[in-house]
Specification:
4-stranded mixed sheet, 2 domains, mainly beta, globular, 0% helix, single chain, 195 residues
Amino acid sequence: MSLEVTHTDGFAEDWQARILNGPPLIAPARQYVFPLAVPGEEDALARGAMWMEIKPATGGVFLAQCALGFAGKGVTTGVWSTPRPSLLLAVAGGYGYLVDTNDPDQTELLPMRPVVSVHPAPQVDALVLIGFHSAYILTAGEAWQSPKLSWEGVAVTGIEGDTLHGTGWHMPSDKELPFTLNLRTQELIGGGCQP
């Protein structure tokens, strides 16, 4: 797995991270395995994992092992900076982990599964995660999930200002219908699931 960390212009970071090809020969003293105990995910690590070496602003380097959600194609894997300087977003086979680099015990497995793509929107201080049916928006202050945008498959066509543009499949007509989602007000117009 040869992946790079995505450093988003406009997002400050107080950490450094490196994605590893596997477990290191010499591991740091602090090591974390994600997800923590989540019902239904008892054998998540059997699908594989993404390994990261993380150096926070304070404290020593630690190793994070993030279980893959899915081993197949069609979902994303990587690491992104976020609107909060101490947090990083790690996505491993479609499973998103919001890692608090200053307190890794507070790492959160995001509710959107799988994450298909990640789109930085620094103009509104947000990171947009796209799934099969909706979007999950991370901001400096809160995270929120959009209403359903599609019966199956969301395509992002762009982000202009504070608006996400895309298309979503409308099952009754078997057509891709356009939508706009305001990333500030959460207002949705159109999409494949709207009446």
